[in-house]
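thought: fold this chain, then report.
action: predict
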Amino acid sequence: MRKGQRHRGGSILKGLQSRFLPSSIRCLKLLLTFQTRSDRTDNTTFTCIRKWEMDAEAAKILFESTILPAFKVHYSAMDDKTQFFVDEENNEIDGAGSPGLVQLSRGACDEPDWLVNFAIAHETAHGVVFLECNAQGVSVPQAQDYGRKKHEAWADLIATKVLMAQLPDVWALVEAQLHVLANKLGGSAVTASHPTGNKRVELIREYASAYVQAETPKSKGFLRTIFCCGSAPNNPVLRREKAFNSCFKKINNSTNF
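observation:
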């Protein structure tokens, strides 16, 4: 996850209910702001801003009970003892992931639910990039310089695949906020270690669109029906896999992030 300055004013969570964790393990801050305006007859404006802050234990439960099992469906060879922890000293939106380890910053945990879910999925994905590269027959690049950018784009892609396939309700919340995610990831700012936020979201959207299209059966012509082998071309699972493989290899071959 790209480092970014924590939003000091707090995140505004409009209409988003915490459907993925019990309310008893979340910490809710309710900020009530009153203002006086001369153009109102009652002289009072009431503004309610709700900010969810996920504590370390809640984030760990989310990882162990939801995100990790979803990843295991696709990557059964991943480390069963993957550890999760929160860096309470880091107030930026940040994280790290590798085989056996997933870390999220305090700043990331203070963000809305949809972003916390995506951040944990993204960092978890870093730990299985090498498994996916092996499956794709792609050499695993060093996680530095341009190779680091590929790792970041692959982690986004893998996280999106897992969320769409295993946690569609979570993905629906993330998808609705992709324009916000692009800004959180730096927008058009160019760095040496990460693709731009706009490019990352562009790649996410491209795969998500291909995934949805794979759900729609394609009609066959008469001759194709006769001469093609079985029903493989119309198998949505195979079409989704083909869409993912295409996006994965596009990132591998890319020279412009």
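thought: worth noting. Residues 23-253 form one domain.
final: tokens above.
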